[in-house]
Specification:
With 419 residues, the chain is α/β, with parallel strands linked by helices. It contains 15 helices and 14 strands. The protein has three domains: 175 residues, Aconitase, domain 3 (2-Layer Sandwich); 106 residues, no CATH class; 112 residues, Aconitase, domain 3, CATH 3.30.499.10. Strand 2, helix 3 and strand 3 form a beta-alpha-beta unit. The structure holds FE3-S4 cluster.
């Protein structure tokens, strides 16, 4: 790899041990991928800050090593959800010992100078990258959203390369950082969304899930979607396409910024092979994400990725002064920005009064759920429904927000899209 003067001095330890170590990791990894040089980045989003049930100790050891070596982030750096709601963790029955480990992790990243966003939707809160900005993001939905909807540039960084990039302010120039790697590999055309509609958030979750399952790690371009898709739908699409597949970038013609038309994001070869999508195929995705039959549930989970103000407004409208049923927990995950806005708007008090619990700073997948006895959950999230059966041992069903709210009120799941 070709290094400039400053990078060579960094590797010689002239800018401290943390910078040396992080740059060395980046150079060695970059060389393994045949990368020729590093580039400056303007922002980072870290996922390695989550103290979780599975890899918490390794992540904590790495963070503490960087802090001990004097590491400070050199670009604006946001943080993914951690392992606990920092102020309400007792209410969610997080064990003391686990909460104490989370606190150590939080403190480590604060010492590094990262911004305490604790959210997987940094693109709505924190620092929002612009089109063309070179960034280093971890967290699959944020990567997909930043590349596709914002037009920023980041490969699918994973722990701990994004931390190294945040510290050094440099990243290997490869993958989605480069223009030539941002063309679509597969073309999908939505011919008829029915029984769903283009204005439904759930349609985009199912479409993303369907397309991600076919794409794997390739880049899709989608046509047939009318302009004016809202941010929550694009958020849901980003999370879904990056869950069933490893999609870090997608294009929707007329919607996402790099795709004003099909020609801008395709070569001739891709334009000759059109995959037609209809709503009936998406019913298959809905069925795949629904492992439990319309029956009793004990958890309703919204906010994966973290919920927006609009989604809280939809919940409030759906509740219409009704209460969450006995024996059902209704949880919504969000970030502190949205939390403070809905608090000031009076929405928070109303939905809490109905029995809804709202958490910030965290993600259920990081929590130990041993103090709960959940078996069956309903969610609006394709990502949650995809991972929860294996990772949380939960039978799940996916429904739109209205049906999730009705499930919370009645304790029962209604039928699927075609019923
Ligand atoms: Fe966010 Fe956790 Fe879902 S990080 S996208 S709430 S799995």
């Amino acid at each position: 790899m070709r290094l400039n003067e400053q990078e060579r001095r960094t590797l010689n330890g002239e800018y401290g041990e943390a910078n040396r170590l992080c740059l060395q990791i980046e150079v060695e990894l970059g060389e393994a991928y045949g990368v020729e040089r590093l580039i400056p980045i303007t922002g980072a989003h870290i996922d390695a800050n989550s103290y979780g049930r599975v890899s918490g100790e390794a992540k904590l050891a790495f963070a503490q090593k960087i802090v001990h070596a004097g590491g400070k982030v050199s670009v604006p750096t946001t943080l993914n959800p951690g392992g606990r709601d920092i102020s309400r963790w007792r209410k969610f029955r997080i064990p003391e010992e686990f909460a104490a480990k989370c606190e150590l992790m939080e403190n480590a990243y604060l010492k590094m100078g990262a911004i305490p966003t604790w959210t997987c939707t940094p693109y709505t809160y924190g620092t929002i990258p612009c089109r063309g900005e070179q960034i280093a993001y971890a967290e699959s939905n944020a990567i997909s959203f930043a590349n596709s909807v914002l037009g920023a540039r980041t490969p699918r960084y994973g722990d701990f390369l994004e931390v190294c990039a945040a510290i050094t302010g440099r990243a290997p120039y490869f993958d989605l950082h480069r223009d030539e790697n941002r063309f679509a590999d597969l073309w999908f055309h939505v011919e008829d969304p029915r029984p769903y509609s283009f204005s439904e958030d759930l349609f985009y979750s199912l479409l993303g899930y369907h397309i991600g399952g076919i794409c794997g790690g390739q880049i899709p371009v989608v046509t047939g979607i009318p302009a004016g898709v809202n941010r929550d739908s694009l958020k849901n699409f980003s999370a879904a396409v990056a869950s069933s597949g490893g999609v870090g970038l997608f294009h929707i013609v007329g919607v996402t910024p790099e795709a004003p038309d099909l020609e801008s994001v395709t070569t001739g070869e891709v334009r000759e092979d059109r995959n037609v999508v209809t709503g009936r195929q998406l019913l298959g995705a809905e069925e795949e994400l629904t492992g439990c039959s319309p029956d009793d549930i004990d958890l309703v989970l919204l906010g994966c990725p973290h919920a927006s103000v609009r989604e809280f407004q939809m919940v409030l409208a759906g509740l219409a002064e009704k209460k969450v049923a006995d024996g059902v927990e209704f949880w919504i995950q969000t970030n502190r920005g949205v939390y403070s806005w809905i608090e000031e708007m009076g929405i928070l008090d109303e939905i809490k009064g109905a029995g809804v619990k709202v958490s910030t700073d965290s993600c259920l997948f990081n929590w130990p759920l041993d103090n709960w006895e959940f078996e069956r959950a309903v969610t609006n999230s394709a990502k949650f429904a995809h991972y929860a059966p294996n990772e949380l041992d939960l039978a799940t069903a996916i429904r739109d927000i209205d049906r999730c709210v009705r499930a919370a009120v009645t304790g029962e799941i209604e039928g699927s899209g075609l019923e």
